[in-house]
């Protein structure tokens, strides 16, 4: 299991915001709230991303509906359950949503 620094986890969290384009360019995603890893094809037709303060759109998880999704196009190892769990511990205190 890799050791993910706080700096890496903070950068990954930053990239989970305004991530619609990144997710659409990905083949797999991970949600660090519910800790599910899934193919992009599992998003329902017409997903409803949130509108950010600068007009960017943030994708919500199709399982827990929280905005804690990263796509593999982000450059982070979203198919590594250890990474998703580390993100969950950092941002949700280990509580799975």
Describe this structure in words.
With 97 residues, the protein is α+β, with helices and mostly antiparallel strands. The protein has one domain. 28% of the residues lie in helices and 14% in strands. It is built from 3 helices and 5 strands. The strands form 2 sheets. Strands 2-1-5 form a 3-stranded antiparallel sheet. A two-stranded antiparallel ribbon has the order 3-4. A hairpin with a 5-residue loop joins strand 1 (28-31) and strand 2. It is globular, with a radius of gyration of 12 Å.
Give the helix/strand class. Answer: alpha+beta
Portion in strands: 5-15%
Cα radius of gyration in angstroms:
12 Å
Number of helices: 3
Mean pLDDT: 89
Q: Sheet bearing the most strands, described?
A: 3 strands, antiparallel
Q: What's the number of structural domains? A: 1
Please give the number of β-strands. 5
The helix content, as a percent range, equals: 25-40%
Write out the strand line-up for the largest beta sheet, numbering strands in chain order. 2-1-5
Which regions contain 5 or more consecutive residues with pLDDT less than 50? none
Protein name: Cytoplasmic protein
């Amino acid at each position: 299991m890799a050791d993910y620094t706080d700096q890496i986890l903070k950068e990954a969290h930053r990239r989970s915001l305004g991530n619609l384009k990144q997710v659409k360019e990905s083949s797999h995603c991970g949600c660090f709230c519910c800790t599910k890893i899934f193919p992009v094809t599992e998003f329902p037709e017409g997903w409803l991303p949130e509108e950010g303060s600068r007009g960017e759109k943030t994708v919500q998880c199709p399982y827990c509906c929280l905005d804690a999704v990263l796509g593999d196009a982000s450059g982070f190892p979203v198919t590594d359950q250890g990474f998703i769990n580390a993100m969950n511990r950092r941002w949700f205190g280990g509580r799975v949503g």
